[in-house]
């Protein structure tokens, strides 16, 4: 189709060289393709309700997106390598859930939890569970070559079931301070979770753009055989990426848990749709090898700004989802169109 | 005070933020419908949000309320543990909070307006126990395992059965508040235990599917017939009342959606006006109880609705066509 | 170079340890034996050719010599020392650089990054210095006279440019041993010239090469020694100077070299009806052509890389939409941009790239052959598998396709046989006109002859044939050859042309509009 | 391949022909790769509860899977062409929802619905909505070349929001008899929905295996460029496939609606995970070109048998999801392993 559609324009020979030369500038601009949309939403938001641009509200937006943003960061890492990890949404709930289960005292929580470990273990256990989940995914996907979509779809269901199992469907509360610190404390008036989220993205930008490991992710996503031929240890890097993503998802879950001072057994349920939407709007390719952290960040930001504006506008509850979805769809379509050629 | 529309300054209508917990069940939709008229009646300005059963969204919505300078907040946190940090934040800004339907696990609010979910389970148990004569099999469609209200109903139903009707076998089926799951599990259970004589569904979500299964298996008999399967539902939506009238189901618990709306706003207005309350009976037929130190709860009546309004197990019930039921309001 | 006269085939080494020696290598892919106790020995400073038919195991050996694949049996030694473990990629890369047959350019990354993949210039903080990378990349491309922006994604390069990126990268390691697996398959004459000049330079510096190609004249041009593989086995190693092309072909095919396609096919009768009429065709990319093909006539459409010949052909068959002009087949005007209409009108097509456009690898041979003619398989509206298999069976017999049966997935066939399946598909509809775009690309000598024999057969039966190619062997049997250059048909040559003239015309020398 | 080996004369010729001859038989067996698993589950089920193999229970399993099975059929069609349609789960709820909205009488349903059309319009409107959704997807994916995953992810959210919008989040009751017929009536003691499901699969087997159009789906999924070069009207067929899939999803939604005599606004929510799991377990490739209807059917059957056995076994509610997920994951992994080579 592209063959016929793309080439209907005027004779190419004349404009081909210019088309070439324009590319690199565009490629860099691609990361910022959502900026106009963000500006538009900001203006609309300000018109709808002058509260929108107040620092209070902006901090609110950033804080409410921080956990999901880190999840998007994690998924972006995986997508860049050309894989997919659907199970991140379950890890997001399970990892802090297991930690809570091990540390909370059933005496306080009406029989929930086993109080096996001291509260200080909460954070390490959370990250460890994340790492284990990632390692298991990696084992099946990298070691045994199973399809990533399939494995992580299965894991999504299993991990969610596991959390329901250990919690009996209840919400864990009475978390130790160490576990709620990240999600609830503030530094210089700005919640720690926002700092954490911004730092994570900054680090990711540097790693992906300026380290051999980061570039290897793009190489693997672009052509795994070529990457291997170039001496990149593709299996090891894929494995590490999956583990890192799961650990990040666990961290994101910890932030969410701290913010809620509790862990509902449904934490993260359905979040993967939002995560994919954000990443893809932000220009991350599902086929691997393409996408930037800046883009992914603007993707989440846009989604959460939309929700915030809809809330401020007092849209009737029953239509919120539709409007939200419609804006996402339009953004997806526009981001594809401005992002360049049609693609599969 | 910066918001153009609602302003507490000098006799203007106070601005109140109301967060709707979800908009995908009939009960909460009824609640959503009752809020604006109640607000007009009480003279408060509304800001509403919807947290779609997502606690993270609720917290973010509370932030937007705060940035919009609301003077009071009404909410119905479906997750009672996770709300503590937000309550603290609101308390720090001296914004009074009324919660509807659920009671926060920690942290204090001005008033909790709810019906007693444990009582729902007990009422349903007593009704079925009496009608079945203390023996036989009943199936219970539990809501989501992650819902405190669902768990309360499950536990109280089970406890009451164990205590009062040990001869009755209860099959508890988890359904995630999904009608199709309930229907499938009902069918499966009927295949293994065709002699099930009672159904307790914890919400009207399973109503239509349950009736359809009964119909398909030719188990729909009028209540007078000894082969009748007793069905108790929960919520009190119009469809249930209609089904009671037609003898398709036998009882439901009418959750007072209208009163949730009215008294939620009533108490928040009272708090803004500086009024206080003490435990004891109220002027609207309910009782305020102190559930823990500093936490008052107005336990609204949630009547059991039956076809004849007769007393069951010593408890009064309401006839399906009682005009006082919100489900019968036009 | 000096020891090119030595005879390595008896295993004698007289100048230090061989650069690489592979002994008794066996490699299986499932039920396929890709290498069967095969071996090779390459001495310092020589340029060693490896030839063999499609699927002989050449690329498999390359994979093993570069540490991408582990052999099932046998051993590899560099300079007399056992090869490093597979996991130690860096050690392998110090010993050998390679241009693989399959593209290892990563289309989503920039040209610069592709050139310095996994060896970026880094600062003391271990972070990549992009400015340096870019500068080095520009320098490298200039050396190869490739005029491309190093910041653009490599996917936007032309095939030739991409091949040069591969070559430039492999040669820029400073490796003393370089493997080139069919590096010329994607290059035009100019490109090949540049590559060979460079190889000669490096030969002077004592760099050792392993060179793989299906073009035997290239072997004679730059190689010292040649090894022949056949059927996964080592057949022969000899000094190039000591074997004639006929002997080489015989070693590759295991039989005496047959005669090339017969050139004594009678010319079509002068009153043969006009079949294909291309009038004022302007392709979307701007190439122009007007010409006719008569029934039973074989017309060649030649041109170098980017000359627009493929563009014109694909526009004729409806794969691309024209900018202007009309195509008629036996009087019927073809709907622009509709392959279906072209096929219905009676065109049979062998597309340019069998992997991209020719075959559906997971489907069976029978399904692939009959894909264009669902109508012929119908019984009461449904596809009858028996009828399909019978139909395909005839093609398999006619074209001599080596397969276990019509039900075998086409992915399990060798390259040459896959190309025959594509040919079978083109012939399935009993076409009036056969359009063959680079029909013998990547096909070994023997399969090439078989395919061209088919052309003779169908044209004798009155079918018109348009062969689009830059391979002289493909064009030799044509009644006329139209030569394109820079998007125009610049010359028409009738049968009996001299190679040099055709090549010159394709290179744009003495360009004159017809 | 044959080129090389046929003439070696060495070890190959003796054992190769047998290996070869086994291939086609194996290919056919591939469709039945889940049969052993199904037998195992059946035996376990029978041991757990002797009710399992009674016709009553078997009919129950078939009936409860019939709607989802048709959804799986629809998704399989799309997957075979190498695309994806996530929005089927929303169409499943929206299509009958819109029909109900147009036909039900607000007087009966307390203000729900607009009573614009007579009850008899219910079924045609449902299918029409399905067709329109499919056409819209097709427009974006086929005509404008947007990525199918992205478009249908957006549509999933929008369509669900639309149903919430028109229903106000409530459940539609009081459906006209025409709309509940398919899901509730029985023929010769077997529910119509089962007949419908079996007939749909039988037709699909014939269409995919024995018609030019069906084979074209495989060709497109296997190599779209090759299909186009072979004169297959790829765009048109892709478009029709997307429309057909959506219409089938609408039909499935109608069956579900009839079974429950109502349409909750969340109908189909999350079903797509199950649908993908069933299709993939059943051997349908996410990369297109591979998969059979028989396989897809055994996939759904297996999933619903597992749920049934878990219910009959009276597994504690909190562990049901975990066990269910674990069995699915194991089945996914096993089906990949027995299904042959590792794949991405
Ligand atoms: N990854 C693989 N999986 C399965 N079979 C393979 C694989 N790679 C190569 N083969 C098979 O091994 C045999 C040798 O292939 P190889 O690529 O080495 O041939 P070649 O001599 O390079 O041929 P060509 O001239 O076409 O490049 C062929 O039969 C091929 O089909
Ligand atoms: N006259 C022309 N001037 C500039 N570019 C052209 C011209 N004709 C074709 N091109 C472009 O050059 C590229 C190669 O064209 P095409 O594939 O038709 O050439 P070709 O002769 O088949 O070359 P190759 O042998 O490399 O396949 C295409 O991108 C095409 O659009
Ligand atoms: Mg090769
Ligand atoms: Mg070309």
Helix and strand composition category of chain B: alpha/beta
The proportion of residues in beta strands of chain B is 15-25%
Ligands bound to this protein structure: adenosine-5'-triphosphate, magnesium ion
Radius of gyration of chain B: 21 Å
With strands numbered from the N-terminus, the spatial order across the biggest sheet of chain A is 1-4
CATH arch. level architecture of chain A: Orthogonal Bundle
What series of H and E elements makes up the topology of chain B?
EHEHEHEEHEHEHEHEHEHEEEEE
Q: Termini separation of chain A (Å)? A: 11 Å
Helix content of chain B: 25-40%
pLDDT averaged residue by residue of chain B: 88
Biggest interface reads:
A-D, 53 and 54 residues
| Biggest β-sheet: strands ordered side by side in the sheet of chain B | 2-1-3-4-5-13-12-11
Q: What is the CATH T-level topology of chain A? A: ABC transporter involved in vitamin B12 uptake, BtuC
Assembly level: heterotetramer
Mean pLDDT metric of chain A = 85
Protein name (chain C): Monosaccharide ABC transporter ATP-binding protein, CUT2 family
Domain ABC transporter (chain C): 20-256, 270-511
Keywords (chain C): ATP-binding, Nucleotide-binding, Repeat, Transport
Organism (chain C): Micromonospora humi
Attribute tags:
heterotetramer, A: 344 residues, mainly alpha, ABC transporter involved in vitamin B12 uptake, BtuC, two-stranded antiparallel sheet, 15 helices, 2% strand, globular, disordered N terminus, B: alpha/beta, eight-stranded mixed sheet, 36% helix
Structure characterization notes:
The complex is a heterotetramer, with two copies of chain A (about 350 residues), one copy of chain B (about 325 residues) and one copy of chain C (about 525 residues). Chain A has a two-stranded antiparallel sheet with strand order 1-4. In chain A, strands 2-3 form a two-stranded antiparallel ribbon. Chain A is mainly alpha-helical and about 350 residues long. Chain A has a single domain, classed as ABC transporter involved in vitamin B12 uptake, BtuC (Orthogonal Bundle). Residues about 1-25 and about 340-344 of chain A have low confidence and may be disordered. Chain A is about 70% helix and about 0% strand. The longest helix of chain A is centred in the last third of the chain and has 27 residues, at about 235-260. Chain A starts with a helix and ends in a 6-residue tail after the last helix. Chain B is α/β, with parallel strands linked by helices and about 325 residues long. Chain B is about 35% helix and about 20% strand. Chain B has helices spanning about 25-40, 55-65, 85-90, 115-130, 150-165, 180-190, 205-215, 240-245, 255-270; strands at about 15-20, 45-50, 70-75, 95-100, 110-115, 135-140, 170-175, 195-200, 230-235, 250-255, 280, 285-290, 295-300, 305, 320. In chain B, strand 11 and strand 12 (about 285-290) form a beta hairpin. The model of chain B is unreliable at about 1-10 (pLDDT under 50). Chain C folds into three domains: about 20-105 and about 175-255, Rossmann fold (3-Layer(aba) Sandwich); about 105-155, no CATH class; about 275-505, Rossmann fold, CATH 3.40.50.300. In chain C, the strands form five sheets. A six-stranded mixed β-sheet of chain C has the order 6-7-8-3-9-10, sandwiched between helices. In chain C, strands 16-19-20-13-21-22 form a six-stranded mixed β-sheet, with helices on both faces. The two termini of chain C are about 45 Å apart. The interface between A and D is large, with 53 and 54 residues. One adenosine-5'-triphosphate binds next to helix 9 of chain C. Chain C: One of its GO terms (molecular function) is ATP hydrolysis activity. Chain C: This is Monosaccharide ABC transporter ATP-binding protein, CUT2 family.
């Amino acid at each position: 189709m592209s063959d016929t559609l793309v080439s209907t324009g005027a004779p190419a020979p004349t404009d081909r060289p210019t088309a070439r030369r324009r590319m690199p500038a565009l490629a860099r601009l691609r990361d910022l393709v959502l900026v106009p949309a963000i500006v538009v939403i900001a203006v609309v938001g300000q018109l709808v309700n002058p509260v929108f641009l107040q620092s209070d509200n902006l901090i609110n937006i950033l804080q409410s997106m921080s956990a999901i943003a880190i999840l998007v960061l994690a998924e972006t890492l995986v997508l860049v390598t050309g894989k997919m990890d659907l199970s991140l949404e379950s890890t997001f709930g399970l990892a802090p859930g297991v930690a809570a289960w091990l540390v909370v005292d059933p005496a306080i929580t009406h029989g929930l939890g086993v109080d096996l470990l001291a509260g200080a273990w909460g954070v390490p256990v959370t990250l460890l569970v994340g790492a284990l989940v990632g390692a298991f995914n990696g084992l099946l996907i990298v070691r045994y070559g199973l399809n990533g979509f399939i494995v992580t779809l299965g894991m999504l269901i299993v991990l969610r079931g596991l959390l329901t199992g250990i919690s009996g469907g209840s919400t864990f509360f009475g978390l130790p301070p160490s576990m709620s610190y990240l999600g609830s404390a503030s530094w210089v008036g700005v919640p720690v979770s926002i700092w954490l989220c911004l730092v994570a993205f900054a680090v990711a930008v540097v790693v992906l753009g300026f380290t051999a490991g980061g570039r290897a992710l793009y190489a693997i996503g672009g052509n795994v055989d070529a990457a291997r031929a170039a001496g990149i240890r593709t299996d090891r890097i894929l494995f590490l990426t999956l583990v890192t993503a799961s650990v990040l998802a666990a961290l994101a879950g910890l932030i969410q848990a701290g913010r809620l001072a509790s862990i509902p057994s449904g934490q993260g349920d359905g979040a993967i749709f939002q995560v994919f939407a954000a990443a893809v709007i932000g220009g991350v390719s599902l086929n691997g090898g393409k996408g930037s952290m800046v883009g992914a960040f603007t993707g989440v930001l846009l989604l959460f700004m939309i929700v915030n504006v809809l809330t401020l506008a007092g849209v009737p509850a029953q239509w919120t989802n539709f409007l939200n979805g419609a804006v996402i769809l339009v953004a997806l379509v526009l981001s594809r169109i401005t992002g360049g050629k049609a693609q599969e | 005070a910066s918001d153009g529309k609602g302003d507490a300054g000098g006799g203007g209508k106070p601005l109140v933020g109301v967060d709707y917990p979800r908009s995908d069940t009939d009960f909460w939709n009824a609640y959503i419908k009752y809020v604006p008229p109640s607000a007009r009646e009480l003279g408060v300005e509304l800001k509403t949000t919807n947290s779609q059963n997502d606690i993270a969204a609720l917290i973010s919505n509370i932030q937007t309320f705060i940035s919009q300078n609301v003077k009071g907040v009404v909410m119905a946190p479906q997750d009672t543990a996770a709300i503590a940090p937000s309550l603290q934040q609101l308390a720090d800004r001296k914004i009074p909070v009324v919660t509807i339907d659920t009671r926060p696990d920690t942290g204090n609010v001005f008033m909790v307006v709810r019906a007693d979910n444990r009582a729902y389970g007990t009422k349903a148990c007593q009704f079925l126990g009496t009608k079945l004569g203390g023996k036989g099999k009943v199936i219970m469609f539990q809501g989501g395992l992650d819902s405190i209200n669902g768990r309360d109903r499950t536990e109280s139903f089970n406890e009451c059965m164990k205590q009062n009707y040990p001869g009755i076998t209860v099959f508890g089926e988890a359904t995630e508040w999904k009608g199709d799951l309930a229907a499938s599990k009902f069918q499966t259970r009927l295949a293994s235990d065709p002699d099930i004589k009672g159904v307790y569904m914890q919400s009207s979500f399973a109503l239509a599917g349950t009736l359809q299964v009964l119909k398909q298996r030719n188990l729909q008999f009028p209540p007078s017939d000894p082969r009748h399967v007793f069905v108790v539902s929960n919520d009190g939506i119009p469809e249930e009342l209609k089904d009671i009238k037609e003898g398709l189901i036998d009882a439901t618990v009418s959750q007072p959606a209208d009163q949730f709306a009215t008294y939620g706003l009533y108490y928040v207005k009272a708090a803004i006006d500086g009024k206080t309350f003490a435990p004891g009976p109220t002027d609207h037929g309910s009782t305020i109880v102190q559930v823990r130190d500093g936490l008052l709860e107005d336990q609204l009546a949630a009547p059991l609705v039956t076809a004849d309004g007769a007393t069951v197990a010593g408890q009064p019930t309401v006839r399906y066509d009682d005009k006082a039921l919100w489900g019968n309001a036009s | 170079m000096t020891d090119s006269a030595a005879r390595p085939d008896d295993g004698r080494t007289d100048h230090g340890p061989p650069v690489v020696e592979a002994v008794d290598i066996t490699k299986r892919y499932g039920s396929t034996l890709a290498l069967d106790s095969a071996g090779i020995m390459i001495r310092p400073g020589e340029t060693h050719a490896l030839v063999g038919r499609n699927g002989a195991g050449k690329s498999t050996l390359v994979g093993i010599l570069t540490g991408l694949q582990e052999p099932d049996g046998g051993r590899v030694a560099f300079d007399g020392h056992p090869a490093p473990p597979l996991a130690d990629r860096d050690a392998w890369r110090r010993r050998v650089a390679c241009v693989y047959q399959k593209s290892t350019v990563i289309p989503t990354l920039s040209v610069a990054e592709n050139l310095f993949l996994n060896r970026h210039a880094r600062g003391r903080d271990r972070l990549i210095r992009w400015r340096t990378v870019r500068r080095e990349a520009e320098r490298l491309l200039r050396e190869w006279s490739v005029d491309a922006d190093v910041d653009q994604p490599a996917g936007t390069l032309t095939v030739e440019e991409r091949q040069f990126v591969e070559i430039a990268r492999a040669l820029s390691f400073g490796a003393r041993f370089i493997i080139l697996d069919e590096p010329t398959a994607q290059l035009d004459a100019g490109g090949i010239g540049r590559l060979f000049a460079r190889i000669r330079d490096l030969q002077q510096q004592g760099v050792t090469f392993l060179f793989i190609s299906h073009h035997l004249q290239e072997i004679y041009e730059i190689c010292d020694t040649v090894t022949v593989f056949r059927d996964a086995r080592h057949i022969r190693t000899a000094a190039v100077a000591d074997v004639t092309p006929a002997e080489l072909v015989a070693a590759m095919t295991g039989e005496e070299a047959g005669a090339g396609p017969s050139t004594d096919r009678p010319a079509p009768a002068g009153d043969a009806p006009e079949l294909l009429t291309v009038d004022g065709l302007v392709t979307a990319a701007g190439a122009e052509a007007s010409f006719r093909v008569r029934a039973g006539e074989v017309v060649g459409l030649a041109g170098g890389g980017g000359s627009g010949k493929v563009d014109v052909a694909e526009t004729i068959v409806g794969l691309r939409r024209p900018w202007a002009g009309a195509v008629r087949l036996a009087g019927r005007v073809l709907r622009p941009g509709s392959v279906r209409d072209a096929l219905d009108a009676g065109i049979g097509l062998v597309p340019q790239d069998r992997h991209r456009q020719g075959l559906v690898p997971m489907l069976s041979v029978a399904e692939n052959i009959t894909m264009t003619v669902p109508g012929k398989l119908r019984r009461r509206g449904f596809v009858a598998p028996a009828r399909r298999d019978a139909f395909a069976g005839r093609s398999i017999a006619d074209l001599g396709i080596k397969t276990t049966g019509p039900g075998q997935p086409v992915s399990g066939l060798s390259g040459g046989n896959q190309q025959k399946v594509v040919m079978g598909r083109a012939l399935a509809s009993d076409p009036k006109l056969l359009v063959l775009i680079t029909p013998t690309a990547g096909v070994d000598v023997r399969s090439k002859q078989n395919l061209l024999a088919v052309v003779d057969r169908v044209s004798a039966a009155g079918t018109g044939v348009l062969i689009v190619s830059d391979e002289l062997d493909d064009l030799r049997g044509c009644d006329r050859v139209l030569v394109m250059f820079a998007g125009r048909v610049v010359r028409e040559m009738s049968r009996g042309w001299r190679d040099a003239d055709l090549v010159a015309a394709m290179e744009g020398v003495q360009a004159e509009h017809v």
